[in-house]
Design a protein that fits this description.
Structural class: mainly alpha
Strand order of the largest sheet: 1-2
Bound molecules: zinc ion
Distance between the termini: 42 Å
Helix content: 40-55%
Largest sheet: 2 strands, antiparallel
Radius of gyration: 17 Å
Number of helices: 6
Length: 180
């Protein structure tokens, strides 16, 4: 494990959120899209199930992408600090629903987008503190701008989960065969 489990989960969630807006379009548009996203990436706490909630979550994506792709610890630190300050985050150790001790920094009744932003910011704080910024990547696949969190021990992850690695392997194989 590179980071604490809750931080790793938060980074994977943040990447998935950013990647709902990609080259293939936007998969987080409606309230039911948000329900689908949260079924895969669960958050405890209150929901309002309205258009404003969806809009606030959507608005988080460019903020997180900018931090993710900046490659600059100062930028990530300032961005994480801003998200934490705006939410008046207050880190607390909690244990619930079968999850052992982990950090929450927002109240359960804080708006969903606030909780998502703070959770991402707390995890980005771990990345910055650990000097692990190079684990925040963009997929190396051609024409793919999906963000990737590299949690591998040997820092080997280059591709997103959408098949870019396979496509690159096939292309390399064809190129080798054409050359021989
Ligand atoms: Zn929790
Ligand atoms: Zn990709």
């Amino acid at each position: 494990m590179v980071f604490a489990r809750d931080a790793e989960e938060a980074l994977m969630t943040a990447a998935a959120l950013v990647n709902t807006l990609g080259e293939d379009g936007d998969t987080l548009v409606t309230e039911s899209d948000l329900d689908d996203f949260l079924a895969r990436w669960p958050f405890t706490g209150s929901r309002t199930h309205d258009a404003a909630e969806v809009a606030a979550v959507r608005a988080l994506r460019p903020v997180l992408r900018r931090l993710w792709t900046s490659g600059d610890a100062d930028v990530v630190a300032a961005g994480a600090n801003a998200l934490l300050a705006e939410a008046r985050a207050l880190p607390q150790l909690v244990r619930h629903d079968g999850w052992d001790w982990h950090l929450h920094a927002t109240a359960p009744d804080a708006p969903l987008a606030t909780r998502m932003g703070v959770e991402a910011a707390m995890a980005l704080a771990d990345v910055v503190r650990g000097g692990e910024l190079d684990r925040l990547r963009v997929c190396a696949g051609e024409d793919c701008q999906d963000v990737v969190i590299d949690l591998s021990r040997n820092r080997s992850r280059r591709y997103c989960d959408s098949g870019c690695g396979n496509r690159a392997n096939v292309a390399a194989y064809r190129a080798r065969r054409a050359a021989s």
